[in-house]
Every structure is written in C-alpha cells, then in structure tokens.
Amino acid sequence: MEQTLELPPVSAPAREASRVQAIDVVRGLVMVIMALDHVRELWSPTAFRPEDVTQTTDLLFFTRWITHFCAPTFVFLSGASIWLQQQKRGSRAATSRFLLTRGLWLIAMEVLVITFLLLWSYNLVLLEVIWAIGVGMVLLAGLLWLPRPVLAVLAGAILLGHDALPSLQPVTPANVGWALLHNTPFVLPLGSLPPVLVAYSAGPWLGVMLAGYVLGPWFKQPLVERVRLLRWAGAGLLVFFVLLRAGNWYGDPSPWSPQPRGWEYSVLSFLNVSKYPPSLLFLSLTLGVTLLLLSRLETVHNRLMDWLRTYGQVPFFYFLLHLALISAGAWLWTHLAFGQAINLSAAAPPTWPPQYEPSLVRTYGVWVAVVLLLYWPCRWYQGFKQRHTYWWLSYL
C-alpha cells in the first residue's frame, strides 16, 4: 500500500520566511478595498446601480468599480496559495482532504454566519464569494489529482468559453444544478425554508481558482523569472481586454457604447464589464492588473507594505470581523438616525426612511474608520498564527 509522507509541523519563523510577500500584500490590498464596497452597500446605497453610466457620477462609479478587483484577485490567489501549501504539506492526499473540509466549512459559514451579517432582518440565504470559494475548494480536492496540463486546459476552457453559455430563465428544480455552476443571479425558493439568492455561480470562479493553482509554480521561480512571467502575463491580459472590448466581439454580455453625457462616460461604459457571472473581459481586466501588482510588490519594503501584509495574512479573520463591524455599525446608526434599525442594502428603495440620503463622504469616512480599527485585532491574530500550529488555525 502506498504510504503518504506527512511532514512535521513547520516552525513559525520558517513559515514566515517561506511566505510570498507579494501574495500577502496584494491580498491585503484587495481586502481593504473590499471593505469600501460593503460600507457603501450598508451605509450609503443608491436607488440605481453605481455602474449605470446613464445616472451615476464619476466618483460613485469608481467607488464601485475599484472593488471589482477584489473577488477575482482573492479567488486567484486562493488557487496559487493552495498549490504553495501543497508543496509544504508534501502530500497531495493531505491537501485534498484539507480542501474538502475547508470548502465545506466555508460554505457553512456563508449560509449560517455571513448571510446573517449582511442580511439581518431578512429571511433570505445569500451565496456570494465565500460560497464560490468553498465550492471551488471542494471540486479542486478531486481535480488536483489530474495532471497540471489537463487543469490548465480546463481552466482555459472555462474562462474562455463560459460567456457562450446561455443564462437560464427561469431557474427550476430541474435545471438548478446547472444554474449553480453558471447563471446570472437568481432566487431559488425552497418551500417552507428561506429562499436562496445565488449571486455567485460557482463555475467561472472555479476557472479562476484553477488558473491560480496552475500558475502557482511561478511563485517558486527565481525572482527575476517570476517577475518576467507575471509582467508579461499581466500586460498580455490588459492588451487582450482592450482589443476585444473595443470591437464588442465577444467576452461580455454588455457592449460598451458612446454616451451622450460626454466622453468620460463613454470611458466608463468601456470599463463597465460584467461581474455576475464574471465575464472573460471582466477577468482579463482585473487579473491583468493583479498580475502586474504581483510582479512589482515582492521587493517593495515600507510601512504600507507591512500594514497591508498584516491584513493579507489573516484574510478570513479580517473578512468576518469587517462584516460584523460594518453591519453592527449600520444597525446602530440607522436606529439612532431614523428611529428604527433598517438594513438599507436589502430594503427596497421605496421603504427607505424619507430623511435618508446617500453620501460618499459618509461612505469613505466609515470605511477608513473600519480599516484602521481592524488593524490591531488582525495584527494580534497574525502574531498568534505565527506562534502556534493548532489545526483549526487553517480554517480561520
């Protein structure tokens, strides 16, 4: 019988030294940016979509648009980190078991905890990015046994081809399995149970995770070679985005067009690519920028990098804390301001209090406060993880 080699626990200094700084820093950057979107949704939603170039303002558009980089970067880096962790574990079987249990854990956390933090007072289950990552890990637990070239072909097929698939309307019990893999957001009624809002279909995000896993070996290359690979790949994706987007040929269900409001809104239309599900052009743009950042930030050392790395080394801990802080703060603010706690992100605009007004000043002020307040608990937990090897630390 084949024996699985189990490596002894790695000491804290060794773990710290073996980390890829650029991954931690870029992950920390997108975690900080992600908080901006959650603050905007809970503290300053608008009656129209911020990406609607017929109604939005420049600042509101970019306040939403910049957060588009968060999910694809986080999922891609999850895939790369899984490959790096597999090398440390020294066992594909151990990695597969961990991915299965971690993926199921993340799905449970999305349903039981994150849904409550985002949709308190509403009888609805929300499936967003943590669910998609969890499903991706469960599937990757089996897929990682395939040869790397096969995984590369599968990732490419998903990312390049999924835009050609139709969106299912309506979603029924007969086709819900496929809809969970690829569809625009939909609500799934479950009889006496709370309905489920599926915002993230898992299939395209699996492609992003597979891409990160396949490119994981790049982060073990000598730095000069790694920088070259990441830089060329990032630049190539951005050129690909511009050329394909310019002609409205393929890769996004929403073509861009010149806008009567002026040239700047035509530019916004060009940049306004689809996230639900993430289109080929959406991923080309966001991951292109991510790869360029990864090529640049490995050797940058300053206090800002240390600050971002703190968040990037404890991403799920930060994720849960930031949602709890933003949500609890919104509950208290609306209770004091309007005489009743109201979840503005989930409530229909006609039910908003008459005195409520969206405010980007409020959004940015709360965002800065949240990010700064979270630094100290994240720094404590970062140090705790470096000093200890408890098994449960891999799940939080």
Structure keywords:
three-stranded mixed beta sheet; 4% strand; globular; 396 residues; 62% helix; mainly alpha; 3 strands
Write structural notes for this entry.
- By secondary structure, the protein is mainly α.
- The protein has one domain.
- The chain contains 15 helices and three strands.
- It has helices at about 10-20, 20-45, 60-65, 70-90, 90-120, 130-145, 150-160, 175-180, 200-215, 225-245, 265-270, 280-295, 305-310, 315-340, 360-385, and strands at about 125, 185-190, 195-200.
- Helix 7 (about 150-160) packs across helix 9 (about 200-215).
- Residues about 1-15 have low confidence and may be disordered.
Order of helices and strands: HHHHHEHHHEEHHHHHHH
Broad structural category: mainly alpha
Strand tally: 3
Helix amount: 55-70%
Indicate the proportion of strand residues.
Answer: under 5%
Distance between the termini: 34 Å
**Rg over C-alpha atoms, rounded to the nearest angstrom:** 21 Å
What's the shape?
Answer: globular
Q: How many DSSP helices? A: 15
Tell me the major beta sheet. 3 strands, mixed
Mean pLDDT: 93
- Regions with pLDDT < 50 over 5+ consecutive residues? 1-17
In spatial order, strands of the major sheet run 1-3-2
Count of domains? 1
Quick structural overview:
The protein has 396 residues and is mainly alpha-helical. The chain has helices at 12-18, 21-43, 58-65, 70-89, 92-119, 129-143, 148-161, 176-181, 202-214, 223-247, 263-271, 280-296, 303-312, 315-338, 360-387, and strands at residues 125-127, 186-190, 193-198. The protein has one domain.
